[in-house]
UniProtKB/TrEMBL annotation:
Domain of life: Bacteria
The entry's keywords: Isomerase, Pyridoxal phosphate
GO MF entries: alanine racemase activity; pyridoxal phosphate binding
Coiled-coil stretches: none
InterPro entries linked to this entry: Ala_racemase, Ala_racemase_N, PLP-binding_barrel
One Gene Ontology cellular component: cytosol
Names of the cofactor(s): pyridoxal 5'-phosphate
Name of this chain's protein: Amino-acid racemase
Lineage of producing organism: Bacteria, Pseudomonadati, Bacteroidota, Sphingobacteriia, Sphingobacteriales
Pfam families in alphabetical order: Ala_racemase_N (PF01168)
Length: 356
């Protein structure tokens, strides 16, 4: 049976590297845990590391975190849906916001639950996902400033996630200027400039981060050690905190090209085949994972003598060529994974999750 393995020593190593970098710059930070999909075994490993702040986009995941440790700070990192307001107040200590009517509802619900709810106002800085437009920011801030039961603890921005717009020193300076303008106009103090995500870590390492950016929220760099500017592993970090193991359930030498009238496969595609493969054979293995678990494009084979052919809903076909490794039915094949690969596996109830 297929299973996902988390290496706790590698996770701890990456965490300690990040903690050291942030500590030297006086930066507060939290872990984006949405990749773990509320899995309590894996969330507990983060708590064991000493994580005090969790960021997530799913209320059910925040609920799972609070059940494990009610004292950690939970941050809901997308604008809340109005139908979710009560649960946002119940399970999130902080939320990201961009809409006045939503914040007004948070204020009212926080009063009903006898809480003060903290918010971070997200500002549009070019990636065109969530964020208040800059020339509307002052009027927006004036409207929310005196809402009861609400504490505005930060300004933030999101980059890279939708259109791939990268953070830059200039963009982050602009974010800091918004903080200065608001503080001057309204005679207030804003504790956080939450301009840091995994993609911003390289700017921190190159000392290109404005000093007022004092809050980070990181997930991908913790779990994959990835420098998203260069698409390479940051020196000294592990890129294989997670590994997937699939079991071979069939292995035969078969033709490289199918035969018969071709239609569309279960995924809606119509595979094509190189001309040079016609008439040739190779060893083809079936592994017990499929599209229900993960898109094959997010799997990385470590063995150069294997190729991924295609997947159906529950099975993945691999080309072992001449099978120089002498694999047999029952053996395990190891995969490294990209971020979306782990996310797919974590969402699958059909793949076991273990800790090493």
């Amino acid at each position: 049976m297929a299973y996902l393995k988390l290496y706790k020593n590698k996770l701890q190593h990456n965490y300690q590297m990040l903690a050291g970098w942030f500590a030297t710059q006086g930066i507060e930070w939290g872990v984006v845990s949405k990749l773990l999909c509320g899995n309590k075994t894996y969330l507990q490993e983060l708590l064991n590391l000493g994580v005090k702040e969790f960021h997530d986009t799913r209320i059910s995941n925040l609920k799972a975190i609070k059940q494990l440790n009610a004292d950690v700070q939970t941050v809901y990192i997308k604008p809340p849906a109005k139908r979710s307001i009560a649960n946002v107040i119940k399970y999130a200590d902080v939320s990201f916001n961009t809409d006045y009517s939503t914040i007004k509802m948070l204020s009212d619900e926080a009063g009903r639950q006898h809480k003060i709810h903290k918010i971070i106002v997200m500002i549009e800085m070019g990636d065109l996902r969530e964020g208040v437009v800059g020339d509307q920011l002052m009027d927006f801030y004036a409207k929310i400033l005196h809402l009861p039961n609400i504490s505005i603890v930060g300004l933030g921005t999101n980059l890279n996630c939708l259109n791939g717009i990268m953070p830059s020193e200039d963009k982050l300076i602009q974010l800091c200027l918004y903080k200065q303008l608001i503080e001057a106009k309204f005679n207030i103090h804003i504790p956080w400039v939450s301009g840091g995500t995994s993609v911003t870590v390289p700017l921190l390492l190159k000392k290109q981060l404005p000093k007022q950016v004092n809050h980070f929220r990181v997930g991908e760099v913790l779990f994959f050690g990835l420098d998203l500017f260069r698409n390479k592993t940051i020196e000294g970090m592990y890129d294989d905190v997670f590994e997937l193991y699939g079991e071979i359930i069939e292995l035969y030498e078969k033709p490289k090209v199918p035969n018969g009238e071709q239609g569309f496969n279960v995924a809606g595609g119509k595979p094509s085949y190189p001309t040079e493969d016609y008439g040739k054979k190779s060893y083809r293995a079936i592994v017990d994972i499929g599209l229900l678990d993960c898109n094959p494009k997010y799997l990385i084979l470590e063995d150069d003598d294997m190729d991924i052919i295609e997947a159906s809903s529950d099975m993945l076909v691999l080309d072992f060529h001449q099978n120089k490794q002498n694999y047999k039915v029952g053996d395990l094949v190891k995969f490294k994974l990209k971020y979306m690969g782990v996310l797919g596996i974590m969402n699958s109830n059909y793949v076991d999750k273990v800790v090493v």
